[in-house]
Structures are given as C-alpha cells and as structure tokens.
Design a protein that fits this description.
The protein has 5 helices and 6 strands; from the N terminus they run E-H-E-H-E-H-E-H-E-H-E. The chain has about 130 residues and is of the alpha/beta class.
C-alpha cells in the first residue's frame, strides 16, 4: 500500500504498539508505523499484509512524510530517555500544529517538561499513558 495521507503514525512496535495499531486499523484509521529496529517494521507489515490501511516506514523522514497534516505521531516507546531521543529525531521534520502523543508511562515531571518544550516549538504534546 502506498504510504501517504495516514491519519496517525505510531513509533514503537513492541506488543502494545502492535496491538494498538491493529485496533486503530480495525476502526478505520490509516496508520503508518516505524520502529528503531527496522526489521520489526518489515515483520509486522508482512504479517498484516492484507490490511489496506497499514504501512511501514524505514526512516523517520519517510515516516513523517506518510502522515496527513496536521501530523499525529504517537510514541509507544520505553518511558525515559527513549522518549526524549525520539522527540529530538522527529522534531526537525514536524511543523507548527503537529501533535506528539506520548503513550508511555512517563513520570509527570518529564511530561510537564516535554509539554513546555514541544509547545515552545509550536507543536502540541499529549502525555497519555496507555
């Protein structure tokens, strides 16, 4: 499936990430996925190859390019430094009005800090432990 105009993108294809993506797809959303270990993207996409509303990206740039504006990026990675690292990787590719959703169980102080930082860049941030 061509990867464009996706409703949302999800970074982090561990068990929770995969299941959340499948749930979104089952409810009609077009989803693009990315994972630091790119082989997980290929394995997941190949296993779910019959889904018409799912695609995978092999780089952050490709991932962001797949998303419809305003972009919605959900991070479902391990709480802590990994969240900060991914924020820094995706920020240069996002624009004012785009949304980053942290689905990990980040500490409140980290969520508060990230919210202020992301808002200073003109983007929106939602801390939402899943």
């Amino acid at each position: 499936m061509p990867c464009s105009d996706c409703d949302i993108g999800l970074i982090g294809l561990a068990v929770m990430g995969q299941n959340l993506v499948l749930n979104m797809c089952d409810h009609g959303f077009k989803v693009c996925v990315f994972n630091r270990t790119v082989s997980k993207v290929d394995e997941f996409i190949n296993r779910e190859k019959d889904r018409k509303n799912l695609c995978g990206a092999h780089s952050v740039e490709e991932f962001v390019a797949c998303l419809a504006k305003p972009r919605k990026v959900m991070l479902l990675v391990k709480a802590g430094q990994a969240v900060d690292d991914f924020i820094e990787k995706i920020l240069p590719h996002l624009e004012s009005g785009d949304i980053i959703i942290d689905g990990g169980n980040s500490a409140f102080a980290d969520t508060d800090r990230r919210c202020k930082y992301i808002e200073s860049k003109g983007l929106l941030y939602v801390g939402s432990g899943v």
